[in-house]
Each structure stands twice: as C-alpha cells, then as structure tokens.
Amino acid sequence: MSKNIDWSNLGFGYMETDKRFVSNFKDGAWDEGGLIDDPTVTMSECACVLQYAQTVFEGLKAYTTEDGKIVCFRPDLNASRLADSARRLEMPVFPEDKFVEAIVKTVEANIDYVPPYGSGATLYIRPYMYGKNAVIGVKPADEYEFRVFCTPVGPYFKGGAKPITIRVCDFDRAAPHGTGHIKAGLNYAMSLHAIVDAHNEGYDENMYLDAATRTKVEETGGANFIFITKDGKLVTPKSESILPSITRRSLMVVAEKYLGLEVEHREVYFDELKDFAECGLCGTAAVISPVGKIVDHGKEICFPSGMDEMGPITKKLYDTLTGIQMGRIEAPEGWIKVIKE
Ligand code: PLP
Ligand code: COI
CA 36: distance to chain centroid? Predict the structure, then answer.
C-alpha cells in the first residue's frame, strides 16, 4: 500500500523510509551486504570520512510509469561513475553489477514510498560510500561502508518549472586537474558558502566559471548547463572539471535522435551567453530547470524565453526525457531498468 504522503506538495528533502542497503569493506573485500532498518550510522570519532572527507556518492530516481511499473533510469551509468569517483579518492570500487542489485533491493524494500504516476514526485535514491575506520595521518581508510537509502522528493527548485535566476559566482568550484569530474562530498562542501551567499543575495543558484581563465561556463553546484541557440541547436559545455551528468548525456541523445536537433558539446565562453535563446540546468535532482536570467555583477543577461515559462525547445527536451522516464515514450535500448512489473 502506497504511504499516505501528500506527494504533490513534497519539496526536495529527506524523509526516512523503512529500509536501506548496507555493505562493508574490510580485510580487502566487500561483504554480501543486505537491507537493514537502522537509519543511523555509528563510527569512530576519527573516521577518515569525518577528518578528511573521504566520501563519494550518486543520485538517481525511481519512477512509476504510466502503465504502473516501477523503473529507474540508467543505473549502470551511476555504477560506473561511482567507481570512477572511488578510484580518484583511493577507495575500493563497489562492483558495478552489485551496485545495480543494491538499487533494486532498496527500491523494492521501500516500494510504498515510490510516488504515484502523475503526482509530480519521484523516489530519489542516494548511493554513497565512505572511509570508516580511524585515520589520523593523511592516508586512505582501509575499511569502507557502501550504503543506499531513498527518499520521496518533489522539485529541486521551489516553483517547479518556473525559470530561475542565477548569478556568476566569484568562488571557483573545481581546479584544472582537480576533482570536479567526480561526485565527491568535498565538491559540495566547498559550494555551501557560495550557495548560502547566493540565496542571501536573492539568487537561486551559482554559475561557476572555469577556474584557470574565468572565461568559460562550467556548471552549477548541482547540475550541468544546456543552452539553445537562436537557430535551434543544443549547446552544452565540455570541460574536464565538471561532472559528466547522466541527464546531460541522455539529453544529447534525445535532442539528436528524438528531436532532430544539432548538438554541440564544446567549450562555451561566457561572452556567448547573450546570444542564446534558452538556458536550462539539467541533472537528476534538477531534471531540466529553466534559467530565465543570469546576473554577472549587476549586468543582466535575460534570455528571450523570459521569466514565466520554459523556452519551447527546453520544453520539448523536458517532455521527451520525462516521457522516456515515465514510460510514455519508448526508451533507447538499455536506458530503463524495470524494478517492478
Ligand atoms: N553536476 C553536479 C555538480 C551534480 O551534483 C549533478 C547531480 O548529480 C549533476 C551535474 C547532474 O548529474 P546527473 O544528471 O548525473 O544527475
Ligand atoms: C543529483 O542531481 O542527484 C545531485 O546529486 C545534485 C544534488 C545537488 C542534489
């Protein structure tokens, strides 16, 4: 029985659900792992994650489809990205097939928390792993915990599909040859001051520029950018220091194969932005959130699509992507993992 939750009024927050999947790495090997009830974690006061932030994570969603199945979207890509993140922080890789199994088990065990079709909410799934044993000299842990919990969520930005306003941020997110391309907690710790400051100034998010030259668009704290040119091309920034968004990679396919749009994945200079017709943020949490205005130290760039609704091409991309995720549109081979028929 579906839980008695006011699905349509959920924000993007944490709600404790019944079960979580846990596996531990010790003496050089992962254990079998399994579902547990305890939503808390106990560990050494000197755990590597607490002292040196040795933690990496993922985010994906489960959806109820139009015909009542429960599915998730491209979990194999989350598995391989978590493996890349782990290697970069000298952590053991959680086997990619076991990762997908853990997602399935966690969703199955919390099936009553999967929001119904058409409610506007989804089940957000958060896999993560961290160095757990005591470490005081700077070195990797040798014991790790991998965990998956889930929580029903609504839109990441209040107002859902209403265009947001972002500012150009004076702080940098990621250095060249740094860790911007992995999903590590440390990249989000450094963004906390910037996001609080942005909110205090009345902006919804930060646009980070490349740290070396501050001339190129990178991403926001939690999403990649997409832009639409006046002649209807999709342009999206290429950089070694941004997260390879699964949503963005999927949208590139959707644009080309479903909508017949030309796609340019390339460096995007800040100076070009004034010439684009539409702008959006894309990610698991953000889905596609339209951006109406970008403010660069008082200088405004207002996209022709305006502040009232999504631009027309952004809307087509949104409808097609969510149509694929919710089973209204046939997905490319391998994109949809069915959890419950
Ligand atoms: N960029 C950052 C910094 C993120 O945290 C996220 C969220 O996962 C994304 C981009 C979007 O990635 P994805 O589409 O894989 O969720
Ligand atoms: C996601 O989209 O899954 C993320 O991890 C972004 C985060 C800012 C919530």
Answer: 25
Question: Which ligand 1 atom sits closest to the C-alpha of 81?
Answer: 15
Q: Is 59 in the pocket of ligand 2 (CB under 6 A)?
A: yes
CA of 195 to the centre of ligand 2 (A): 14
**Hey, what amino acid is at 290?**
P
Q: List residues with catalytic annotation.
A: 183
Question: Does the C-beta of 241 come closer than 6 Å to ligand 2?
Answer: no
Distance 28 CA to ligand 2 centre (A): 30
pLDDT at 202: 96
The residue contributing the CA closest to ligand 2 atom 8 is: 222
pTM exceeding 0.90: yes
Q: Ligand 2 atom 9: the closest Cα is on which residue? A: 285
**Ligand 1 pocket member 106 (CB < 6 A):** no
Q: Which ligand is nearest to the CA of 246?
A: 1
Distance CA 242, CA 268 (A): 13
- The model's confidence at residue 223, banded by pLDDT at 50, 70 and 90, is very high
Q: Is the dihedral of CA 176, 177, 183, 186 positive or negative?
A: negative
Pull the structure tokens for residue 147.
């965990």
**Ligand 1 center–CA 191 separation, angstroms:** 14
Residue 195, CA distances (Å) to 41, 90, 227, 270 in order? 27, 28, 22, 20
Q: Does residue 1 register a pLDDT over 90? A: no
**Which of 283, 330, 306 shows the shortest CA–CA distance to 58?**
283
Ligand 1 neighbour 110 (Cβ under 6 A): no
